[in-house]
Amino acid sequence: MKYIIGVDIGTTNTKAVAFAVDGTVLGSAGAGYPVFTDAEGRHELDPDELMAAVESTLAEVLKSVSEAPAGISFSCAFHSLLAVDGQGKPLMRAMTWADLRPSAAAKSLRGTEAGRRIYQHTGTPIHAMSPLCKLLWLRDNEPDIFRRASRFIGIKEYVWWRLTGKYQVDHSIASATGLFDIRRREWYPESLTLVGIDAGRLSEPVPCTHMEETRANLRYVIGGGDGCLANLGSGAVQPGETALTIGTSGAIRMTACKPEDDPEGRVFNYILSPDRYTCGGATNNGGNVLKWLFEKVLAVGDSEEEWQRRVQEADGVPPGCEGLIFLPYLQGERAPVWDADARGIFFGVRSVHDHRHFTRACLEGVSYSLYQIGATVAETTGPIARIYASGGFTRSDVWLQMIADVFNKEVDLAGMADASATGAAIMGFLALGLIDDLDAAKNLIHVARTYKPSMARHAHYRENFQIFAQLYGRLHDLMR
Fold first, then answer.
1. What is the pLDDT of residue 417?
2. Residue range 343-356, pLDDT digits in tens
3. Are the CB atoms for 280 and 373 separated by under 8 Å?
4. Torsion over CA: 452, 458, 464, 465 (sign)
5. Does residue 289 surpass a pLDDT of 90?
6. How do residues 146-198 score in pLDDT, each as one tens digit?
7. pLDDT confidence of residue 247
8. Domain 3-227: CATH superfamily, name plus number
9. How far apart (Å, rounded) are the C-alpha atoms in residues 111 and 264?
10. For 102, which of 133, 135, 161, 429 could close a Cys bridge (C-beta 3.0–4.6 Å)?
11. How buried is 239 (Cβ within 10 angstroms: 0-12 exposed, 13-18 middle, 19+ buried)?
């Protein structure tokens, strides 16, 4: 049976899935790597450790199947930046989406006429996450690296160069850089001029179905960004269908036929295919919030067993958390406030609240944050028709039901492996002619369970959300 390996290169680990053309998962594997952080906002990966994880993950998956794959296709986290010399040697660790050091550069650009034009042309909100702002920071703070760099690339481009010897970037990853015109499908001159580079120091943009064949007769499909491919791998391929992902961070993305500009620059528009975009917003704060609570506050560790036990205990607390509300901005925030200086807040703490309430407040706070982003997306693009869930949070029935209740929408959970890796495999099927179009993805994704909302619980959540939605605005100045 023909199959493709979909590889998802993430912020903390790489996952690979062997996915057959009939929708069967033949095998999967994963490997992690450290993240380098400090109090200044640094958030970096070692590109060679990441490359080793990609190679070991692929080798592990290949052990689980008896024949060679028809191809290998790639998904990757958006917004990374790496400077390399003329021989392709890294001059620095790779900055990830979570690196906050470019915050000052983003603040000075956001709200200006140039910032508005760049957002309208590139679809990427002005924020520290974007490679555009990372380049501005690198130019001003690491001038020697900026000068010596032959190219500025992302982590997928580094992996792609190591595998194929070519500097190429898919339209999806390029569309999240703040440097790429998403309608003309070329590097945007005003962004390049602002940074002070030319297109020759960036990779060649290619479609997400672009393929390279190696001497070993392996066919590599370049694929796309993890968020866009999570829509595809979740089955959210029609306009109005919305994918909600919570992993380390979180995001909500609606599939659309064309990019929709938000006058306030709150939502992104990233390319999925020539005729499809994902419009949405990402939060910096997802599963990392519970990791922080369990490890640093409750000091109970973050093992799978402990995670499940604590979340199950929190389900004994009524919806609305008896008045306890959490603003989950532990790592600043992207959508919808786009403020790297935003901070977390527990509000409404009373003596009746115990550790179960604080756990539930964290779950509800992340859910409210995504609900707020979803409202912005709906305002810009159109109503949410249905929600398709993916990411690590899907191991929790409690959290999935909470999302259904907060949004007052049915939530479908596919009985698949990692959605982004699955989406990468489906893009590979399209590249190799094994499916006719992306709509065929619907036939490959099987819904394992649907979570139906409760109007009574939704009413409780709506009450708390009204307060949640005001907290940031009222405390904005104090956060500085």
1. 66
2. 999 999 999 999 99
3. yes
4. positive
5. yes
6. 999 999 999 999 999 999 999 999 999 999 999 999 999 999 999 999 999 99
7. 87
8. ATPase, nucleotide binding domain (3.30.420.40)
9. 9
10. 133
11. middle
Per-residue model confidence as pLDDT tens digits over 55-78: 999 999 999 898 999 999 999 999
Q: Which two tokens stand for residue 416?
A: 């698949």
Nearest to 181 by CA among 122, 226, 134, 230: 122
> What six digits make up the tokens of 455?
């109007």
Give the single-character DSSP code of 296.
I
Take residue 113 and report the two structure tokens written for it.
Answer: 């006429």
* Cβ contacts of 479 within 8 Å, gap of 6 or more: 339, 341, 342, 343
- Give the integer Cα–Cα distance in Å for 117 and 340: 21
Q: What is the mean pLDDT of the chain?
A: 95
How many angstroms separate the CA atoms of 19 and 123, rounded?
31
Q: End-to-end CA distance of the chain, in Å?
A: 58
Tokens at 375, concatenated:
């409202």
Q: Work out the number of other CB atoms within 10 angstroms of the CB of residue 257.
A: 11
* Per-residue DSSP letter, 43: E
So where are the chain's domains?
Answer: 3-227
CB 390 within 8 A of CB 243: yes
| 335 φ/ψ angles, rounded to the nearest 5 degrees | -65, 150
Give per-residue pLDDT as tens, 9-66. 999 999 999 999 999 999 999 999 999 999 999 999 999 999 999 999 999 999 989 8
Residue 336, token pair as written in the block = 């919808």
Only one residue has tokens 């609606």, namely 254
Give the integer Cα–Cα distance in Å for 166 and 148: 20
Task: State how beta strands 447-451 and 411-414 pair.
Answer: antiparallel
User: pTM of this prediction?
Assistant: 0.92
Cα distances (angstroms) measured from residue 401 to each of 61, 120, 138, 182, 411: 32, 36, 43, 36, 8
Q: What does the DSSP 8-state code read for residue 332?
A: B
Calculate the alpha carbon distances from 435 to 243, 273, 441 in Å: 22, 14, 8
Give yes or no for a contact between 429 and 4, defined as CB atoms under 8 angstroms apart. yes
